[in-house]
Design goal:
Helix content is 63%, strand content 0%. It has 209 residues and is mainly α. The chain has 2 domains: 49 residues, Arc Repressor Mutant, subunit A (Orthogonal Bundle), CATH 1.10.10.60; 139 residues. It contains 9 helices and no strands.
Protein backbone atom coordinates (compact mmCIF):
# COMPACT_ATOMS: atom_id res chain seq x y z
CA UNK A 1 0.00 0.00 0.00
CA UNK A 2 1.41 3.40 -0.95
CA UNK A 3 1.42 6.31 1.42
CA UNK A 4 -0.96 8.22 -0.93
CA UNK A 5 -3.86 5.87 -0.10
CA UNK A 6 -3.23 5.70 3.65
CA UNK A 7 -5.56 7.57 5.97
CA UNK A 8 -4.11 10.52 7.86
CA UNK A 9 -3.83 8.61 11.17
CA UNK A 10 -2.13 5.73 9.34
CA UNK A 11 0.35 8.13 7.75
CA UNK A 12 1.21 9.53 11.16
CA UNK A 13 1.69 6.06 12.65
CA UNK A 14 3.87 4.98 9.74
CA UNK A 15 5.95 8.15 10.05
CA UNK A 16 6.37 7.67 13.80
CA UNK A 17 7.47 4.07 13.33
CA UNK A 18 10.09 5.06 10.75
CA UNK A 19 11.48 7.82 12.96
CA UNK A 20 11.47 5.71 16.12
CA UNK A 21 13.44 2.99 14.33
CA UNK A 22 15.87 5.47 12.83
CA UNK A 23 16.48 7.77 15.80
CA UNK A 24 15.00 6.17 18.90
CA UNK A 25 11.68 7.27 20.36
CA UNK A 26 13.25 9.60 22.92
CA UNK A 27 14.79 11.68 20.12
CA UNK A 28 11.63 12.11 18.06
CA UNK A 29 9.34 15.10 18.58
CA UNK A 30 5.71 15.56 17.57
CA UNK A 31 6.88 18.22 15.14
CA UNK A 32 9.21 15.71 13.48
CA UNK A 33 6.42 13.13 13.15
CA UNK A 34 4.07 15.65 11.55
CA UNK A 35 6.80 16.76 9.16
CA UNK A 36 7.77 13.18 8.25
CA UNK A 37 4.13 12.44 7.42
CA UNK A 38 3.90 15.63 5.32
CA UNK A 39 1.14 17.04 7.48
CA UNK A 40 0.47 20.25 9.37
CA UNK A 41 1.99 20.81 12.86
CA UNK A 42 -1.25 20.02 14.67
CA UNK A 43 -1.97 16.67 13.02
CA UNK A 44 -0.79 14.38 15.83
CA UNK A 45 -2.77 16.22 18.48
CA UNK A 46 -5.86 16.43 16.27
CA UNK A 47 -5.96 12.69 15.52
CA UNK A 48 -4.47 11.18 18.70
CA UNK A 49 -4.84 13.83 21.38
CA UNK A 50 -1.19 13.76 22.36
CA UNK A 51 2.17 12.15 21.66
CA UNK A 52 1.29 9.48 24.24
CA UNK A 53 -1.97 8.81 22.41
CA UNK A 54 -0.10 8.27 19.15
CA UNK A 55 2.35 5.91 20.85
CA UNK A 56 -0.50 3.93 22.41
CA UNK A 57 -2.21 3.66 19.02
CA UNK A 58 1.03 2.46 17.40
CA UNK A 59 1.58 -0.14 20.11
CA UNK A 60 -1.99 -1.39 19.85
CA UNK A 61 -1.82 -1.58 16.07
CA UNK A 62 1.42 -3.55 16.06
CA UNK A 63 1.18 -5.60 19.26
CA UNK A 64 -2.49 -6.44 19.78
CA UNK A 65 -2.58 -8.99 16.91
CA UNK A 66 0.26 -10.92 18.56
CA UNK A 67 -1.61 -11.39 21.83
CA UNK A 68 -5.35 -11.17 21.20
CA UNK A 69 -6.12 -14.61 19.76
CA UNK A 70 -3.95 -16.45 22.30
CA UNK A 71 -5.35 -14.55 25.25
CA UNK A 72 -8.97 -14.91 24.17
CA UNK A 73 -8.50 -18.69 24.09
CA UNK A 74 -6.92 -18.61 27.57
CA UNK A 75 -9.75 -16.39 28.84
CA UNK A 76 -12.37 -18.86 27.63
CA UNK A 77 -10.48 -21.69 29.33
CA UNK A 78 -10.45 -19.71 32.58
CA UNK A 79 -14.27 -19.64 32.33
CA UNK A 80 -14.43 -23.42 32.05
CA UNK A 81 -14.49 -23.78 28.26
CA UNK A 82 -12.16 -26.28 26.59
CA UNK A 83 -9.00 -27.51 28.27
CA UNK A 84 -8.42 -26.83 31.98
CA UNK A 85 -6.92 -23.41 32.73
CA UNK A 86 -3.36 -23.30 34.02
CA UNK A 87 -1.53 -20.16 35.17
CA UNK A 88 1.56 -21.33 33.28
CA UNK A 89 -0.42 -21.35 30.03
CA UNK A 90 -1.47 -17.74 30.62
CA UNK A 91 2.13 -16.75 31.31
CA UNK A 92 3.35 -18.55 28.18
CA UNK A 93 0.73 -16.76 26.07
CA UNK A 94 2.16 -13.45 27.29
CA UNK A 95 5.87 -14.27 27.25
CA UNK A 96 6.14 -16.03 23.88
CA UNK A 97 5.13 -12.96 21.81
CA UNK A 98 7.71 -10.91 23.72
CA UNK A 99 10.35 -13.46 22.72
CA UNK A 100 9.22 -13.31 19.09
CA UNK A 101 9.44 -9.52 19.12
CA UNK A 102 12.97 -9.64 20.58
CA UNK A 103 14.25 -11.27 17.38
CA UNK A 104 13.86 -8.17 15.20
CA UNK A 105 14.92 -4.55 15.40
CA UNK A 106 11.34 -3.38 14.97
CA UNK A 107 10.13 -5.79 17.64
CA UNK A 108 12.75 -4.64 20.12
CA UNK A 109 11.82 -1.03 19.40
CA UNK A 110 8.16 -1.80 20.14
CA UNK A 111 9.00 -3.63 23.37
CA UNK A 112 11.17 -0.73 24.46
CA UNK A 113 8.41 1.73 23.61
CA UNK A 114 5.85 -0.34 25.53
CA UNK A 115 8.09 -0.51 28.59
CA UNK A 116 8.99 3.16 28.42
CA UNK A 117 5.31 4.14 28.23
CA UNK A 118 3.81 1.69 30.72
CA UNK A 119 6.53 1.86 33.37
CA UNK A 120 6.45 5.65 33.49
CA UNK A 121 2.70 6.07 33.93
CA UNK A 122 1.52 2.62 35.01
CA UNK A 123 -0.89 2.41 32.10
CA UNK A 124 -1.42 3.19 28.42
CA UNK A 125 -4.02 5.68 27.22
CA UNK A 126 -6.94 4.88 24.91
CA UNK A 127 -6.23 1.19 24.41
CA UNK A 128 -8.27 -2.00 24.21
CA UNK A 129 -8.94 -4.66 26.82
CA UNK A 130 -5.71 -6.62 26.64
CA UNK A 131 -3.57 -3.58 27.37
CA UNK A 132 -5.06 -3.21 30.84
CA UNK A 133 -4.56 -5.27 33.99
CA UNK A 134 -8.22 -6.15 34.65
CA UNK A 135 -8.64 -9.26 32.44
CA UNK A 136 -5.43 -10.79 33.74
CA UNK A 137 -6.38 -10.16 37.34
CA UNK A 138 -9.78 -11.78 36.72
CA UNK A 139 -8.19 -14.91 35.22
CA UNK A 140 -5.63 -15.16 38.00
CA UNK A 141 -8.31 -14.64 40.63
CA UNK A 142 -10.27 -17.59 39.26
CA UNK A 143 -7.16 -19.79 39.24
CA UNK A 144 -5.95 -18.65 42.68
CA UNK A 145 -9.11 -18.25 44.79
CA UNK A 146 -7.11 -18.54 48.01
CA UNK A 147 -5.52 -15.14 47.31
CA UNK A 148 -7.16 -11.82 48.08
CA UNK A 149 -8.02 -9.47 45.23
CA UNK A 150 -5.27 -7.13 46.41
CA UNK A 151 -2.70 -9.94 46.43
CA UNK A 152 -3.68 -11.01 42.92
CA UNK A 153 -3.40 -7.43 41.64
CA UNK A 154 -0.03 -6.91 43.30
CA UNK A 155 1.38 -10.18 41.96
CA UNK A 156 0.23 -9.36 38.45
CA UNK A 157 1.74 -5.87 38.64
CA UNK A 158 5.07 -7.29 39.81
CA UNK A 159 5.04 -9.98 37.12
CA UNK A 160 4.27 -7.61 34.27
CA UNK A 161 6.78 -5.03 35.50
CA UNK A 162 9.46 -7.73 35.41
CA UNK A 163 8.50 -8.69 31.85
CA UNK A 164 8.70 -5.07 30.74
CA UNK A 165 12.12 -4.73 32.35
CA UNK A 166 13.39 -7.92 30.68
CA UNK A 167 12.06 -7.36 27.16
CA UNK A 168 11.92 -3.56 27.11
CA UNK A 169 15.54 -2.96 28.02
CA UNK A 170 17.64 -0.40 26.13
CA UNK A 171 17.52 -0.95 22.41
CA UNK A 172 20.35 -2.89 20.81
CA UNK A 173 20.91 -2.85 17.03
CA UNK A 174 22.65 -6.24 17.12
CA UNK A 175 20.77 -9.49 16.39
CA UNK A 176 18.59 -10.80 19.20
CA UNK A 177 21.19 -13.43 20.09
CA UNK A 178 23.51 -10.66 21.29
CA UNK A 179 20.94 -9.12 23.62
CA UNK A 180 21.46 -11.91 26.19
CA UNK A 181 17.84 -12.35 27.13
CA UNK A 182 17.05 -15.22 29.51
CA UNK A 183 15.69 -18.43 28.01
CA UNK A 184 11.98 -18.15 27.30
CA UNK A 185 11.18 -21.26 29.34
CA UNK A 186 13.12 -19.82 32.28
CA UNK A 187 11.05 -16.64 32.15
CA UNK A 188 7.79 -18.59 31.96
CA UNK A 189 8.71 -20.86 34.87
CA UNK A 190 9.96 -17.95 37.00
CA UNK A 191 6.91 -15.75 36.44
CA UNK A 192 4.53 -18.67 36.98
CA UNK A 193 6.25 -19.56 40.25
CA UNK A 194 5.89 -16.00 41.51
CA UNK A 195 2.22 -15.77 40.61
CA UNK A 196 1.33 -19.12 42.19
CA UNK A 197 3.58 -18.94 45.28
CA UNK A 198 2.17 -19.80 48.69
CA UNK A 199 0.17 -17.06 50.37
CA UNK A 200 1.73 -17.81 53.77
CA UNK A 201 3.49 -14.88 55.42
CA UNK A 202 7.24 -14.56 54.87
CA UNK A 203 9.29 -14.37 58.06
CA UNK A 204 12.12 -11.81 57.74
CA UNK A 205 15.54 -13.27 58.44
CA UNK A 206 14.50 -16.90 57.96
CA UNK A 207 14.90 -17.11 54.18
CA UNK A 208 11.63 -19.02 53.89
CA UNK A 209 7.92 -18.74 54.53
Amino acid sequence: MTEEVLSTPARLLAAAERLFLDRGAEQVSVRAINAEAGLNPGAVHYHFGSREGLIAALLEQELAPLWTDRLEIIARRSQGEGEPFEVGDLVAAIVEPFEELSRTEKGRMLCHLLARSALRTGRLVNVSTWFGAAPFEVMLGRALPHLSLREVAERWRLAFTLLLEVYGRTLAPAPAGAVALPETETVIVFITAGLTASARGFQPGTGSS
